[in-house]
Amino acid sequence: MIADSRSDARALVLSGGGVRGAYQVGVLRYWLGEERTRYGLLAGTSVGALNAAFLAQYPLGEETRAIADLEALWRSLRPNMIARRWFPFGRLHGFWRPAIFDSRPLQRLIGRTIDAERIRRSGRRLVVGAVSLESGLYRTFDESDPNIVAAVAASSAFPGYFLPIEIDGERYTDGGVREETPVAAVIQAGAPIVDVVMTAPGGVSAPLERRPNAIAVARQAIDAMLEEVIDTDIAVAELFERLRGLEDPTHPPAELRLVRPKSPVRDDVLTFEPATVDRLIRVGYLDVCRVCRAFDSPESERSLQNPADDGSI
Length: 313
Hints:
By secondary structure, the protein is of the alpha/beta class.
């Protein structure tokens, strides 16, 4: 367990992964709800940007309330709150529209649940990333940016499937295209302690069925892409730390605490069904409890056997 209790000494980094953001909620149920861990800096891309921005609205000291509200939000989600088919031709509209699905429901959800002024007043720092479709460059936005809510929507815009978001005359899409887990960014920002939640296991994929359809092939390709980008992000962060150590041997390396699924997550990243959300929250909670050896506590053991389904911790 990391002993440093300074509120600005710890950063939280959340990767992308669509509905697998529910896995992050399970991990954070333990870190925020039971450990009462305080994060002065939160960073994320894609669904991780959405989760980080939501939590960044709560002042330091309100960790239990923050994760309870985030879990309640996730448990309230239904597919039509994220995206819907275009009328009348459904996915065929993708031939003349910039996205296969109409993701305006997700944009409205973000507008209702993320308040830029609350983030600025909370005392926390926030960093999210999105990719410009005009330049192809990755851009970071922080809590002081007037476009921070639009940036969260842009970072959550799954490329090709969800509508891009216009910011300053440029169209932006999912930050995970370039950087799925922005660990290096928070280390560069000076965070000496970094907790990371990934949504894909390392080098492990669910087996592809013998006669897959096009959707199954696309899902497998997306999973492989997520795993590769996530692993690259961690490797870049480790390289940055080694180079910084060479420049200044007295500089202590950042401490990383990493949680990721132990086995392949078989769900389509865009399947926002209540049963899927419930199971992923439970898996995330089980994984972090194992990492933190929470089974020593009888209370933790009971909560694992019967996790709350009403948004409470």
